[in-house]
Amino acid sequence: MVKQIVRDPLFLAQKSEPATEADRQVIEDLTDTLKANSDRCVGMAANMIGVKKQIIVVAIGPFILPMVNPVITKKTGKYETEEGCLSLDGVRACTRYKEIEVDYLDRDFKKQHGKYSDFTAQIIQHEIQHFSGELI
Fold this sequence. Notes:
By secondary structure, the chain is of the alpha+beta class. The protein has one domain: Peptide Deformylase, CATH 3.90.45. The chain has three helices and five strands; from the N terminus they run ααβββββα. Strands 1-2-3-4-5 form a five-stranded antiparallel β-sheet. A hairpin with a 5-residue loop joins β4 (88-105) and β5.
């Protein structure tokens, strides 16, 4: 189900908790909401739809990749950039890494490991940053 985008910085500043299999519907809601906002958004974290769980979805071309409880295990190629966020106005400076490796659970809660680079890596880093409550 498509959900409304949360724009309250006080809510977005709260930390997210690890997701469990009881949170499967959040994956579907995030996917539907990202699809509905695909003209202006390439990734979403669960707190953007009002759920403080560690779940993100990332658009990779025509595909949407859900990641449950993702953890960046390796990062290389540090650089500075500016990003915007559907939940916030304007753009902000931030530090990202050109290449990352991530351990996560897929939509079936099976362990996965992926290597990502460039723009996809940047999106994943941005969405994972939402878990800490740190606003870009």
